[in-house]
Amino acid sequence: MTKWVSSFGDGKAEGTASMKATLGGKGANLAEMSNLGLPVPPGFTITTDVCTYFYAHDNSYPPELTAMVEEALGKMEAQTSMGFGSAEKPLLVSVRSGAPISMPGMMDTVLNLGLNDETVEGLARASGDPRFAYDSYRRFIQMYGDVVMEVKHYSFEEALEDLKREKGARFDTELDAEALKELVKTYKAIVRQEASRDFPQDPKEQLWGAIGAVFGSWMSARAITYRRINSISAEMGTAVTVQAMVFGNMGDDCATGVAFTRNPSTGEKLYYGEYLINAQGEDVVAGIRTPQALSKAMAEAGESDPAESMEVKLPGTYKELTDVFDKLEAHYREMQDIEFTVQQGKLYVLQTRTGKRTAAAALKIAVDLAAEKVITQDEAVGRVEPASLDQLLHPTLDPKAERKIIAKGLPASPGAVSGKVVFNAEDAEAKAAAGEAVILVRIETSPDDIHGMHAAKGIVTQRGGMTSHAAVVARGMGKACVCGAGELSISYRDKTFTSQGVTVKEGEEITIDGGAGLVMAGRVPTVDPQLSGDFATLMEWADKLRRLKVRTNADTPTDARTAIKFGAEGIGLCRTEHMFFQDERILAMREMILAQDVEGRRKALAKILPMQKGDFVQLFEIMGPRPVTIRLLDPPLHEFLPHEPHEMDEVAKAAGVEPKTVRRRVAELKEANPMLGLRGCRLGILYPEISEMQARAIFEAVVETAAKVGTAPIPEVMVPLVAMAKEFELIKARIDAVAREVMAESGKQIEYQVGTMIELPRAALRADEIALEASFFSFGSNDLTQMTLGLSRDDAGKFLEPYQKAGIFEHDPFQSIDQSGVGELIQIGAERGRKVRPDIKLGICGEHGGDPASIAFCEKVGLDYVSCSPYRVPIARLAAAQAMLRQKSAN
Amino acid sequence: MTKWVSSFGDGKAEGTASMKATLGGKGANLAEMSNLGLPVPPGFTITTDVCTYFYAHDNSYPPELTAMVEEALGKMEAQTSMGFGSAEKPLLVSVRSGAPISMPGMMDTVLNLGLNDETVEGLARASGDPRFAYDSYRRFIQMYGDVVMEVKHYSFEEALEDLKREKGARFDTELDAEALKELVKTYKAIVRQEASRDFPQDPKEQLWGAIGAVFGSWMSARAITYRRINSISAEMGTAVTVQAMVFGNMGDDCATGVAFTRNPSTGEKLYYGEYLINAQGEDVVAGIRTPQALSKAMAEAGESDPAESMEVKLPGTYKELTDVFDKLEAHYREMQDIEFTVQQGKLYVLQTRTGKRTAAAALKIAVDLAAEKVITQDEAVGRVEPASLDQLLHPTLDPKAERKIIAKGLPASPGAVSGKVVFNAEDAEAKAAAGEAVILVRIETSPDDIHGMHAAKGIVTQRGGMTSHAAVVARGMGKACVCGAGELSISYRDKTFTSQGVTVKEGEEITIDGGAGLVMAGRVPTVDPQLSGDFATLMEWADKLRRLKVRTNADTPTDARTAIKFGAEGIGLCRTEHMFFQDERILAMREMILAQDVEGRRKALAKILPMQKGDFVQLFEIMGPRPVTIRLLDPPLHEFLPHEPHEMDEVAKAAGVEPKTVRRRVAELKEANPMLGLRGCRLGILYPEISEMQARAIFEAVVETAAKVGTAPIPEVMVPLVAMAKEFELIKARIDAVAREVMAESGKQIEYQVGTMIELPRAALRADEIALEASFFSFGSNDLTQMTLGLSRDDAGKFLEPYQKAGIFEHDPFQSIDQSGVGELIQIGAERGRKVRPDIKLGICGEHGGDPASIAFCEKVGLDYVSCSPYRVPIARLAAAQAMLRQKSAN
């Protein structure tokens, strides 16, 4: 019989940490901690298989589940010597979700389950604290009502506020047992009113209601969005963990907190966390009361009061806790994120998991753990998410720049960004979609804000600590975030905030520094990132591991210099057309396009030749001995002509032709589907003089550079959009002829290669024929994706999102390669090319060259290099190393 | 050692008819005829391998060729008892080209080679006819000067005319020996003047000059054009045949002629041909003198004088000749095209080859030969070029229509067409490119006119017979042609012709009936073709042979009825969008597109539903038990909206919305590359209500048709532009849901299939995933070609021609499938689809479905059916049968 339930507690467990797939992360770690002998309240986990069963069987459970849950409950009762539903010693439980991959804040949790009008009295007697009992009961009704019975949570909040006003209480803690008893009655009335039924008194009914709500929430809109953003499959399902409650809110010898074994923001080795005396866990995470630091050191760094730290307030428990930290980090060989509760002086560990961290912290922790010999260098390389490096490679505030600080908060997630202020997730999404950089300013954030946080460049909250929702999510997303900026007075209605006497309206620009916790007015200049020692160390380890070379897509000296700084090993794609768009050049280009015959075109091209040659000399000098792949002109000619009537008249004037000539030519060149039109090598077939000019510029630049610096660069001339081998042959013949001419003229030998883009499905299929003449292939994965999927990148915007929502695309295929479609063509192209020319050089130069999943694919297919934008070079280096690690561990 | 030369003559030969690849068609048949013991003048053939060698070695010959030619010449001298260059008994030769595939009129020929100032006297003595000798010499200088020495032929013609004027002669034959001797001097002076060197006197020098000219002409612009139009590879090269001259111009017991063993225009079993007494072969083909009929019967039918027929004039030789005809037709088992010469009463056969014929003739000859048991029924099916059937399927003149005949000529190539008159090839090409139907009117045509003839719908000439250049080429191309319409007075300068008092200007419309030899003023109505008994017979034989089913692409009742008449076995593609463009419907369609929400769209779609259902009922009734594949809406929505401002205003008014709403929607829907945009199944994913309406229309039509006619049609619902299996799954789920609804509402079971187009490379690659749910695939080869080659059909026009000229495309890939690119994807799609679903139905529905080469490919890949336009259905039936024949003979 399938085992649907797995128990833990009392120093042993039926599961282990390796069973995340069935127990979820939370359940597996609770089992593991039980096995480690850590103080874990007993409980059991309903497996993810039940979730799968639930959705496959019309929201029903396996028939044998009830009995299994009963049995597990029985064990809990035995271990705690309490009874579920007992009026004397009532066992209360928490019910939590736990997916195999952590989805913080996305799933619903119910605490204090098991309380009813009878057991609350039992709890009052057992704890000797009626106030605590009724506070727990009212919290339970509120949470259960919200999560399970769909009663709007503000109904409860309003009733609480009304009562506080009536009683003259500032804080919840000032309400006494009687007042809370009254509140419970009010809450039950609210439930009856809004849910049209009574609040359930039967603890078993409560339990099954909560279990159903957890499974139900797996398909909530929030969960689906989170999974989509994070590319998590819905297949895996969630587990449900039921655990005996312990209470951090039974008095001042009680506390609750969350902690990291190292600083998740910087990676510093430092016990890091927050706690609240006399509180339940939700109070810390929800950010409603601002918690205190765990350690004195952290309090001092974070500007909170060291005297209030746990290290000072509960020194014995603190020591016990840090021992648990050390034990867990050593056991998991990884920085941990831990939840704990202290009930009447006794420590309970409620959860441990790999702690989320910023890229900088990930880097430092990985390098430190390797230095501490806890992990190997290879493991360290595998520990840093390549895409997260992006956070480290972008500018920080210029230290010399003037800045007007208007608020200070917690440095919740690093990065310096400027953007226009928005006050809700919808506006953030809308403006970001319109191409604007926005900063989302909220009192606090909730899971409902996820899509807005995703769209924003940065996040500011008025309330909440370093482990508040906003902080955790922002770090996960790599967004700059300032939390708990209490000075802010935010009006959602007016769409303004005021701080230090300055009022900022929606749409006005601010700058935030998430590494320093600063909010500044206006735009503050930034400077290039300082790539730290840890960065260099990890990159060095990665470079030792990887086989794939990493080149860059660069058209300008600036790009080329940046890329070299980031470790690029060559240029994989230099788009020559970008050079034609510059002011002086576009005139000659237009003259060429407007010319009536080949002589006219040659005349215009002769003007472009020296400029283009100059560009190449510059690039060759910067790149030194590194290979430079230069693609011949690719876009359709109409891209160089204006389309507005008055612009056409200007061009006519400048070119000295009739306006109607320009109009006629624009009309002639107009295309129904330019992507599939007269572009790429087709231009070179129809107008060979263009290819000839470009080849001459390249070869003359080689000779000139060689004369200047002593050694000759070896250019790789790349022919775009080849469909037929013959196209390539014809253009290669022209290039070779020009090379011979330049060699004859200069008296110098020129080494060079001629290769092609493989960016049409046909080229991939007939790579064998093309490879007969081509020295290298560069897979143009952007166009290959467009053609293979019949999807224009310019037009797909309208349906990419609905397509991702409908589960048709798991990823945006322009971001991460469609491995089973486009990928197969790349594989076919690589195999057939190599069959004919075993030493053919193979690379990729689309957007995908900087995407870790796509790089892993390139490693699998055995390409020689990837080429990506300069800022993605380090990401590609790390991803290439990780791909190699995965290959190794697969073998 | 390679044998570069192959001799023949005297009842034996080194080659046979099977050696066309090396000897060319002419050389192989001369060898074969020699072996058959027919009276063939001796000679030798220089093989096509020499041509290949020539172009591979910088226009030079294999070193051993000279000796081999000498040896072969020696044999000729021995057999004829004459000497090449001998002043006593001079051997004269012809030098002709002969490619493996006949290329009439495209290659150059030199006759009378070996004459010089000495041998001419020898010829005069040997023949006893100095006039004949000098006439031969002057013809030789003229031909050699033109073809080998590049002297303009009109220089010679002017000199001849001058001389005739001077001597008061009307015809060439009125010039005597002395006059011709004088002309020879003038000709030699012209050569010296224009070629800057003397006319060569050395016969060997003459010979090598002529051989070089033949090889050189293989790469002439005319030859290249002919090969391009006829899809002939340049690789095969041409052979050169050198043969002893015989003379049809040595007196009135001499003659020359060309003949067909059956009527090449109708296929009737009748000795058919033309001859001229006292003439050389060129005189017949060039159409300068109008020749006489071979037989009395033919003369009577063709309105020439029976008394002048060869049957009457040279009865003995005629009998000998018809024996040769019978022998050759029996030997080759095919209608032959024969050239012959009678020299002083002795018959010589100079050439035989398979005769070109009209489609009607091909059909009749094939069926007749099978009836005569000369060939089998299968062979008969293989004898008719499928594409040529097109000629038979198009309208002929309405017999009841009024017509104003303005000229009569020879019925050179059948077909009734109307078009605007043009007077040269360039104008024909330009106007045809602009979409106009044109009729090319010429005094006579030459190989330089080929491209214009290709562009024209029909051809009229003033001069020339049934075997003139115009007639032969027009029949080959399947163009209507009227030849030798002597009444026409044509002015190229004024671009007019006058006939029977009517003057027709360029651009005015005429109608010609090439089957009756009529030229008519204006446009004359036509009627549908009568599909003859032979047609039906051959189709029946073809249908017995073929495995591939043939369906049609039909959107309208008219299309469907035509297709059934032509033998379509179902509809392979019904494009539903064509139904949306009709007047009343486009309003509802636009209302749908302009709607703000799904409710608005549903409202508009509800208006379209009954109309669309009505269409389907009509189609189902016409198609009866035949399958009908209905494709869901495919084009992007902007195709339904107007693009001119005033049209948008009208639409706004009609739809009752603000003009700006229409403009905004038009702008929203605008796409950079509509081919790769929001179309096909993407519409159904974003607007499921469209698919639902269409599915409902289909299923309700099934129920309605079943109620009307008693049996229910089984529709095949086709989802277009699928890239991802999930897209298909989602839309299929909607279709299935609608089917269940309609079944519930009507209380009837509905049988149906849901399948998909495979028209994106990704769909072909992932056909396995798609086949899990799809009952059939239809390869959309148009879009698959566009995507695979990255080539927009709308935009490719600009470079398709240069691409074909440059040898990049052998065929237009939109006409005939790119087998090694697009074809491989079809093969992959078919294999992977079948692997998952062995009984999946596979078809093709692009333009290629009616192209014989593509159909052969579909047979090879094992598709179940092809679908093509109604008029191509018979072509597809025949092509499918021939593909099967080829498969059989390959096994």
UniProtKB/TrEMBL annotation, chains A, B:
<keyword id="KW-0547">Nucleotide-binding</keyword>
<dbReference type="GO" id="GO:0046872">
    <property type="term" value="F:metal ion binding"/>
</dbReference>
<keyword id="KW-0418">Kinase</keyword>
<feature type="binding site">
    <location>
        <position position="759"/>
    </location>
    <ligand>
        <name>Mg(2+)</name>
    </ligand>
</feature>
<feature type="domain" description="Pyruvate phosphate dikinase AMP/ATP-binding">
    <location>
        <begin position="318"/>
        <end position="367"/>
    </location>
</feature>
<feature type="binding site">
    <location>
        <position position="783"/>
    </location>
    <ligand>
        <name>Mg(2+)</name>
    </ligand>
</feature>
<keyword id="KW-0067">ATP-binding</keyword>
<dbReference type="InterPro" id="IPR023151">
    <property type="entry name" value="PEP_util_CS"/>
</dbReference>
<dbReference type="InterPro" id="IPR008279">
    <property type="entry name" value="PEP-util_enz_mobile_dom"/>
</dbReference>
<keyword id="KW-0479">Metal-binding</keyword>
<dbReference type="GO" id="GO:0050242">
    <property type="term" value="F:pyruvate, phosphate dikinase activity"/>
</dbReference>
<dbReference type="InterPro" id="IPR015813">
    <property type="entry name" value="Pyrv/PenolPyrv_kinase-like_dom"/>
</dbReference>
<dbReference type="GO" id="GO:0005524">
    <property type="term" value="F:ATP binding"/>
</dbReference>
<dbReference type="InterPro" id="IPR002192">
    <property type="entry name" value="PPDK_AMP/ATP-bd"/>
</dbReference>
<dbReference type="Pfam" id="PF00391">
    <property type="entry name" value="PEP-utilizers"/>
</dbReference>
<keyword id="KW-0670">Pyruvate</keyword>
<comment type="function">
    <text>Catalyzes the reversible phosphorylation of pyruvate and phosphate.</text>
</comment>
<comment type="similarity">
    <text>Belongs to the PEP-utilizing enzyme family.</text>
</comment>
<dbReference type="InterPro" id="IPR018274">
    <property type="entry name" value="PEP_util_AS"/>
</dbReference>
<keyword id="KW-0808">Transferase</keyword>
<feature type="domain" description="PEP-utilising enzyme mobile">
    <location>
        <begin position="436"/>
        <end position="517"/>
    </location>
</feature>
<feature type="active site" description="Proton donor">
    <location>
        <position position="845"/>
    </location>
</feature>
<dbReference type="InterPro" id="IPR013815">
    <property type="entry name" value="ATP_grasp_subdomain_1"/>
</dbReference>
<dbReference type="InterPro" id="IPR010121">
    <property type="entry name" value="Pyruvate_phosphate_dikinase"/>
</dbReference>
<dbReference type="Pfam" id="PF01326">
    <property type="entry name" value="PPDK_N"/>
</dbReference>
<dbReference type="InterPro" id="IPR000121">
    <property type="entry name" value="PEP_util_C"/>
</dbReference>
<dbReference type="InterPro" id="IPR036637">
    <property type="entry name" value="Phosphohistidine_dom_sf"/>
</dbReference>
<dbReference type="GO" id="GO:0016301">
    <property type="term" value="F:kinase activity"/>
</dbReference>
<dbReference type="Pfam" id="PF02896">
    <property type="entry name" value="PEP-utilizers_C"/>
</dbReference>
<protein>
    <recommendedName>
        <fullName>Pyruvate, phosphate dikinase</fullName>
        <ecNumber>2.7.9.1</ecNumber>
    </recommendedName>
</protein>
<dbReference type="InterPro" id="IPR040442">
    <property type="entry name" value="Pyrv_kinase-like_dom_sf"/>
</dbReference>
<feature type="domain" description="PEP-utilising enzyme C-terminal">
    <location>
        <begin position="532"/>
        <end position="883"/>
    </location>
</feature>
<feature type="active site" description="Tele-phosphohistidine intermediate">
    <location>
        <position position="469"/>
    </location>
</feature>
<keyword id="KW-0460">Magnesium</keyword>
<feature type="domain" description="Pyruvate phosphate dikinase AMP/ATP-binding">
    <location>
        <begin position="62"/>
        <end position="294"/>
    </location>
</feature>
